[in-house]
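A common beginner's mistake is to predict each chain separately and then try to dock the pieces by hand. The better habit, illustrated here, is to supply every component at once so that their relative placement is modeled jointly.
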Amino acid sequence: MTATDTRSPTPLSGIDVWIFDLDNTLYPASSNLFAQIDQRMTEFIGERFDLPWDEARRRQKQYFRDYGTTLRGLMTEHDIDPIEFMDYVHNIDVTPVSPSPELDKALERLPGRKIVYTNGSCRHADNVLARLGIAGRFDAIYDIVAAGYVPKPDPRPYADMIQKHGVDPSRACMVEDIARNLVPAAALGMTTVWVRTEADYARPDHGGVGHGDHIHHAVDDLIPWLVELSGSVGK
Ligand SMILES: [Mg+2]
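With all components supplied together, the output reads:
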């Protein structure tokens, strides 16, 4: 970052709105909830189009690549009802996620508003936040329905989210495991935190994004980082 860069990130002590991705960010990727959702998506497509598993799987991954989410592909190409789809795929067992009193405490101490911004549904977010024991720490959930079914990293819902929730991006920080989803946040002037992952699709070099200026902080494990941060800037 050079001295002339007008997008130098705001120090974390100056942040008053925290925007957290949900899946694989607020709980570890090792909980593997997405494997269940992924499986339910394949089942949905297989049942809907009467396809064998392998073909349903191939189609699902094609939609994800072409449209950013499987849902977007199904809506665009087949006019699928998004509520029906989400109710089906988010009907999963969240017990692999462990309740986290540490995370709850860190969020309580961290000053400022907190928003969950997810490509999933409110119902899924509510389930996971309740399981983690942190539901009471968030002021709002901005889900895929609020976003008009336009997923991250399309820049339009980011602009809509900050407008709807009165967020000043120069005083906001976004925390996310999929590096490319931080590109629009940084472009708006937010400070960004990438929760490191080994998954190829989430890494900064995926899709030619590069190890660019859109990642201001990178952390291996959200909870110890947040505990330390909330201890230094918190109440
Ligand atoms: Mg995520």
